[in-house]
Amino acid sequence: MSHEGAGESPLQSKSHKQPTPHEALLAKLEELETYTHKALQQYPRIERHLLCSQIQASMNIIQRLTIVGWKRYHKKTTLQDLDVEVEVLRKWLTKSLRLEYINPHKYATWMNHVNEVGRMVGGWLRSAG
Q1: Is the pTM of this model over 0.70?
Q2: Would you say 62 and 36 are in contact if contact means Cβ atoms under 8 Å apart?
Q3: Burial group, residue 118, by CB count within 10 angstroms (0-12, 13-18, 19+)
Q4: In 3-state terms, what secondary structure has residue 103?
Q5: How many angstroms separate the CA atoms of 26 and 67, rounded?
Q6: Contact 58, 89 (CB under 8 A)
Q7: Beta-sheet strands, E only, within the chain
Q8: What's 4's DSSP letter?
Q9: Phi first, then psi: what are they for 25, rounded to 5°?
Q10: Does residue 2 register a pLDDT over 60?
């Protein structure tokens, strides 16, 4: 019985095989989190404890649900919750554009990141169900 790779996080995997859905999603979420962090630093100070914290909370929930979905045997409900949270994040970004905290170019770039995560979640959901 081999225990190679036991206890490693999905991002620390040493093998060069095709990444599993959760590994690819976690890697993409790290990219999204980096972009989100930089973008939120440019919001007005008054929004740092309101809209910014809601966007950060949504990102944290997405990351948590990704890990929960990876660990659960029955994944469908968790993945549906993950899909909903991605949609919530989209609405926060749309609100940011509407309030003119971000320009249309930043919105388009940010939404491309979120849409890619949404496509990955949708694919994982279809494969699990």
Answers
A1: yes
A2: no
A3: middle
A4: coil
A5: 8
A6: yes
A7: none
A8: T
A9: -65, -45
A10: no
Question: Token match 């910014």: residue?
Answer: 52
Strand, coil or helix: what is 42? coil
Measure the CA–CA gap between 46 and 61, rounded to whole angstroms. Answer: 23
Query: What per-residue string of b and e applies to 68-107 under the rule 16 or more CB within 10 Å gives b?
Result: bbbeeeebeebbbbbbebbeebbebbeebbeeebbeeebb
pLDDT tens column, 6-47: 455 555 555 567 878 778 899 999 999 999 999 999 999 988
- Number of residues assigned to the chain: 129
Name the residue with tokens 């554009």: 97
Are 79 and 125 spatial neighbours (Cβ–Cβ below 8 Å)?
Answer: yes
